[in-house]
Structures are given as C-alpha cells and as structure tokens.
Amino acid sequence: MKLLEERIKRDGVVKSEGVLKVDSFLNHQIDVNLIDEMGAEFARLFADAPVNKILTIEASGIGIACLVARHFGNAPVVFAKKAQSINLDGEMYSTKIQSFTHGRIFDVIVSKKFLSPEDHVLIIDDFLANGCALNGLIELVEESGASSPSWRARGPRSRASASRWRRASSTEATSCASRAITWSRSQSSNRWIPTPARSSSAKTRR
Predict the structure, then answer these.
(1) 3-class DSSP state for residue 74?
(2) Is 87 within 8 Å of 58 (Cβ atoms)?
(3) How far apart are CA 38 and CA 20, in angstroms?
(4) N or C: which end of the chain has fewer CB within 10 A?
(5) Is 127 helix (H, G, I), strand (E, B) or coil?
(6) Residue 51 in contact with residue 17, Cβ under 8 Å?
C-alpha cells in the first residue's frame, strides 16, 4: 500500500473543514493503474481466503470493487443500495449507515438473492472515514450467514457478539460522527496525520 500512501501525500487535498479529498484519483476520477495495483495487493493479502464475492456500497465503491474483483478470478461484485427502487424485489438484508459524504442516515439494502451462507465475501470501499459504512456492510454479511476474512482478523469474538456490538439503529449510526477522523498536514514532516474530530457536531463522511 506504499503506492497509495505516496499518492495521497502527493495529490490528497485537505478542505477547510478537515475532510481529506482524494477525488482526483480515487472517488471521482479513478486512476485505473493505481486501483489495479491495489487489487493485486489485496489478492496477495487474502491469498488464503476463498473469496468468491466482493461487496461494496454505491456509488463510489463500485468502480474500485470491479477492478479489485479482476484479481479474485472475476468474482461477482455486489453493491449495497441506498434506496429502494422498482427494480428491487423479493427479500432484502437491511441496515442503517451514517454517510460521511451526504451527512445523513441511509437504509442500506442487499437482495437475499446475492448473499448466502455459501459465500465468502471480501468488503471493498473507496474511503474509510469513521467506519460506519464498513460496520454496516459487515452486518449485512453476517445477517446473510456468509463469511468474511475480516472475522478471522478480528480474533475469536463470536459472530453473535460482533453483531450485537454493531447492531444498527438511528442512534448508533448518528454516533459515528463523534468517531470521525480528520486529517491535517504536518508542518514539520509534510505528512498527512489522522486526528480525532473535535466534536460530535462535525460533519461526517462515509
């Protein structure tokens, strides 16, 4: 991930409210070669995991997930939707996610047709701000009965206790704002430094 770190140092932009913008290469304009290299690194890191599906959330994660999927045998990409539409039918898995980008809570859904206990899911998204989107996607995977390499990384905690810890509600989703991370450039080292948000009233971003 050194390549990504160097790119953020070079092209990342900190806005006045403490938001790190990476839209020139990640979530508005995509540097395909960079994402391809990241996909190869993900494939190396999870080489021992039987990944057969990639899960992300609309919209910025979709392009990145598709490029990463090429390194996992062209595994299907499932993206959680933030709105019900006439094209969605049947039973759904659902959770609530506080969007750092839009400053609101979304009911996020995935059709039960596309996640099942037989699936081994790798979760990919464009930007981790406060972890709310990631926690919501993990909850959808757990609800479906599928497995994910992230459970192994978290250690022996049971799936049931993990689900209770993350159980979505409007109150919990909103509280993600207080866990937000902002970024600033160190004057001495010229490096991006993560710092806790100063208050829970700060703007959040997925």
Answers:
(1) coil
(2) no
(3) 19
(4) N
(5) coil
(6) no
164/119 Cα distance (integer angstroms): 22
Q: Going by C-beta distance under 8 Å and a sequence separation of 6 or more, which residues neighbour residue 65?
A: 54, 55, 56, 77, 79, 124, 125
What mean pLDDT is reported for the chain? 75
Helical ranges in the chain per DSSP H:
2-11, 32-45, 60-69, 132-144, 149-154, 159-166, 170-175
> Mean pLDDT over residues 135-153, rounded?
80
Tell me the pLDDT tens digit for each residue of 20-61: 888 889 888 999 999 999 999 999 999 999 999 999 998 888
**For residues 65-85, average pLDDT:** 92
The model's pTM:
0.70
Length of the chain: 206
Tell the burial category of 189 from Cβ atoms under 10 Å away from its Cβ (0-12, 13-18, 19+): exposed
